[in-house]
Amino acid sequence: MPAVTRWFIKSSLLYLAAALALAIWLAGQPFGLPVVPGLSPVLFHFFLVGWVTQMIMGVGYWFFPKFNLQQPRRSEPLGWAVFWLLNAGLLLRGLAEPLLSMGPGFYWVAALVSSAILQWLAGVLFVVNTWARIKER
Amino acid sequence: MPKFSIWAIRFALAYLLLGFTLGALLLINKAVPFHPTIWGLLPLHIEFLLMGWIVQLVFAVGYWIFPRFTFEPKRGRQGLAWLALLFLNAGIGTNTVAAFSAEPSWQLIGRALEVAAVAAFASQLWYRVKPTETGLKAG
Asked: Do A120 and B23 touch (CB under 8 A)?
């Protein structure tokens, strides 16, 4: 299993745990846990992007047909770029969205916009690196 | 990789791009509101990523890697898989129209097509959910 895949899979497991921890936090708010606005979208995205999509990306990078003998997984640097862009973007969102929900602030606005761009770039680069590997063999 | 999976994965990747693009617009609009109608794209963002990306990719990979039969056709009835792909993408397309239409029947048709897609795919894959046949006899 390539190193990029191992990082994707381990990060996806951490996001699953984080998403479920956030679910506990949300469920515990009526029982006295601090109410933080903006947590629900973070929970959904930790689950669906951090866990599900990141797991697919990691396993796909490993499992899809080889590009060629010299570059079986097409571009390894692109694989790493997808990993770092996706995770930086998602973590930034996890921080900025609740903080922006609590009150306006230039830094949180900038962080949320950056988060959107980083995750979008990760998606584009994943498709670029994967497309040519979707073939018969 | 069989032709069906190639097509389904390519569709899934296209929906990943579309879904991430809508997601980026929605998130930027949350930080810097630039258009009042952007929030109306949320159902499409969800549709493209859940049905177009995740469900479609599961169809593709399931058809590719689940245990095959020892007889032809080894991956079962291919026609059902293609029908599922057709219904799924027609359903997503119809739900896209529904997002911009005040007519509620579009969404009903879109959802019905998606249910038909799942039924076709489940019946295609049903008998392939079995132990792998190795050719060796037990015992």
From this structure: yes
CB contact under 8 A, A135 and B1: yes
Length of chain A in terms of residues written: 137
What is the rounded distance in angstroms from the CA atom of residue B51 to the CA atom of residue A59?
19
ipTM: 0.95
pTM score, two decimals? Answer: 0.94
Structure confidence by residue, pLDDT tens digits, B4-45 = 999 999 999 999 999 999 999 999 999 999 999 999 999 999
Query: Cis (ω within 30 of 0) for the bond into B36?
Result: no
On whether any CB of chain A is under 8 Å from the CB of B92, the answer is no
- Is the minimum CB–CB distance between B58 and chain A shorter than 8 Å? no
Record: contact A119-B32, CB cut-off 8 A: no
Rg of chain B on CA atoms, in Å: 18
Sequential DSSP letters for chain B:
--HHHHHHHHHHHHHHHHHHHHHHHHHHHHHS---TTGGGGHHHHHHIIIIIIIIHHHHHHHHHHSPPPSSSSTTS-HHHHHHHHHHHHHHHHHHHHHHT-S-THHHHHHHHHHHHHHHHHHHHHGGGSSPPP-SPPP-
Counting as low any pLDDT under 50, the low residues of chain A are none
Nearest to A119 among B9, B24, B32 (CB): B24
